[in-house]
């Protein structure tokens, strides 16, 4: 099989999974005829899709694909094989499922780290009452008024876009449109539409906080998901790597993308993002303690693993939803409402394993970026994440 034929079959295979679970295809910007063929075909058999993934993996060695492209497609076919088996009803252990999807082995976090995080947060939020009560009060005072949300989103999007365009070239026609939606298991979502355009949806079911909004816009747009999609469409797709026109849920692509996006604000603004955000809010007539927000964010960052622990409790140890919600409230200091919102995400058949992309992606990509000893070196490494079809395995050995 030649390389173009294999890539075409890979694209067709991935598109078929959207017939099993709508939303499995996060983005597709390739030949529209392939999508029409898939949509008009009979509903696929998931076990047959798994077998096709195995067969295509075996064919990779017989193509003239470069080693990097072949590895990228190989780990994604492995993920699709697992998804096919899961859709077919096969019982696969949760840890093995996560490994097949994202190419990482997961384990519970260290609760001693969570205790240390609580102590650091306690120092930032000193005062009477429990830490959970003080954190809830702090967050209540940090809520963006609903009627001011759009202008805050626009302000941070514009400021971050300017920073990104100064560091990494983007097409003049690129554009992000923001919309507010409800009844979703996530806080924000990037819908990449192709042709350098995205729609970013912000969940109205969750209150939006001033401390989180810069992270959200950086994550979903500049220099996160939107920027990555644009750069890869310009470079990889433009050079003929058609496999990059397809972005699938529950693949190593997701771990790389979420790790990149979670490191986006840190990478483009760096230390001092709190005071940078404070100035933007001040221009909008909103009071925001940027230094306090940054210190609290650094401390609470040590609680990242709590989300993955919750997934392990639910799907590996088969704890009740009440037990998992209690765990999120105790160690993650989540409000009861946010804990239940997290459970919606963890309980979704499509998204149940997805928390690992944030936890393991942040650790893996953060460690890799730390190889850069200067600002310019780290910027160059982040640029590689934006531009190259890297996989978790490649980062581990580089």
Describe the structure.
- This protein has 398 residues and is mainly alpha-helical.
- The chain has 2 domains: 3-92, no CATH class; 111-397, no CATH class.
- It is 61% helix and 7% strand.
- It has helices spanning 3-20, 32-40, 46-59, 67-87, 94-102, 111-124, 131-141, 149-167, 213-220, 225-237, 252-262, 264-268, 273-283, 290-300, 305-315, 321-331, 336-347, 355-369, 375-387, 392-397; strands spanning 25-28, 175-181, 188-194, 197-203, 246-248.
- The relative contact order is 0.13.
Strand content: 5-15%
Task: Give me the count of strands.
Answer: 5
N-end to C-end Cα span: 31 Å
Helix content: 55-70%
Question: Structural class given helices, strands, pairing?
Answer: mainly alpha
Oligomerization status of the protein chains = single chain
Shape: globular
The overall number of domains is 2
Task: Please tally the helical runs, counting DSSP H or I stretches of 4 or more residues.
Answer: 20
Average pLDDT works out at 95
The biggest sheet, with number of strands, parallel, antiparallel or mixed sense and barrel status, is: 3 strands, mixed
Radius of gyration: 21 Å
Strand order of the largest sheet: 2-4-3
Low-confidence stretches: none
What sequence of helices (H) and strands (E) makes up the elements? HEHHHHHHHEEEHHEHHHHHHHHHH
């Amino acid at each position: 099989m030649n390389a173009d034929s294999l890539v075409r079959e890979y694209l067709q295979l991935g598109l078929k999974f959207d017939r099993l679970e709508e939303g499995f295809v996060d983005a597709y910007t390739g030949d529209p005829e392939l999508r029409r063929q898939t949509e008009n075909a009979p509903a696929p058999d998931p076990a047959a899709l798994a077998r096709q993934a195995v067969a295509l993996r075996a064919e990779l060695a017989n193509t003239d694909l470069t080693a990097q492209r072949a590895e990228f497609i190989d780990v994604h076919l492995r993920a699709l094989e697992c998804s096919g088996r899961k859709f077919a009803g096969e019982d696969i252990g949760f840890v093995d499922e996560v490994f097949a999807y994202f190419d990482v082995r997961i384990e519970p976090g260290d609760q001693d780290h969570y205790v240390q995080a609580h102590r650091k947060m306690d120092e930032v939020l000193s005062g009477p009452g429990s830490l959970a009560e003080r954190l809830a009060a702090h967050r209540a005072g940090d809520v963006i008024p609903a009627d001011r949300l759009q202008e805050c989103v626009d302000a941070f999007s514009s400021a971050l876009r300017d920073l990104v365009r100064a560091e990494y070239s983007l097409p003049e026609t690129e554009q992000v449109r923001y919309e507010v939606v409800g009844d979703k298991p996530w806080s924000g979502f990037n819908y990449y539409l192709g042709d350098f355009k995205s729609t970013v949806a912000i969940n109205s079911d969750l209150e939006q906080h001033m401390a989180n909004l810069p992270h959200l816009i950086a994550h979903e747009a500049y220099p996160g998901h939107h920027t990555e999609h644009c750069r890869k469409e310009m470079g990889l797709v433009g050079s003929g790597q058609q496999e990059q026109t397809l972005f699938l849920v529950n693949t190593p692509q997701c771990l790389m993308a979420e790790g990149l996006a979670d490191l986006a604000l840190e990478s483009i603004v760096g230390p001092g993002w709190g005071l940078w955000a404070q100035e933007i809010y001040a221009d909008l007539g909103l009071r925001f303690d940027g230094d306090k927000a940054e210190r609290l964010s650094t401390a609470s960052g040590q609680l990242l693993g709590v989300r993955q622990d919750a997934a392990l409790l639910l799907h590996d140890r088969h704890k009740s939803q009440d037990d998992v919600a209690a765990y999120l409230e105790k160690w993650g200091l989540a409000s009861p409402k946010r804990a239940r919102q997290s459970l919606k995400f963890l309980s979704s058949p499509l998204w149940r394993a997805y928390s690992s992309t944030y936890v393991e992606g942040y650790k893996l990509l953060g460690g890799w970026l730390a190889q850069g000893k200067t600002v310019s070196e780290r910027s160059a490494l982040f640029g590689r994440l934006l531009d190259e079809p890297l996989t978790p395995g490649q980062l581990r050995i580089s």
